[in-house]
Design a protein that fits this description.
Strands 1-3-2 form a 3-stranded antiparallel β-sheet. By secondary structure, the protein is an alpha+beta fold.
Length: 65
């Protein structure tokens, strides 16, 4: 099961988190929240498998997210 661990408020933040999770070998998925909004202005849900949620959340906290 996939769960949301963070809500990125724009594309730049979502890309930074994407790079961070990729470096840490965490499986993730970014899901845009709104339709009819440009990608740069959209919010993104950061989803990870439930089994990796605690580790992924800790990584985000350690890196100021």
């Amino acid at each position: 099961m996939w769960i949301v661990i963070y809500m990125a408020h724009n594309k730049a933040i979502s890309e930074a988190i994407e790079n961070l999770l990729r470096e840490e070998d965490i499986l993730f998925h970014m899901k845009p929240v709104y339709q009819n909004v440009t990608p740069e202005e959209n919010c993104y849900e950061v989803l990870v498998p439930q089994s990796e949620a605690e580790e992924a959340h800790d990584i985000l906290i350690e890196n100021g997210y």
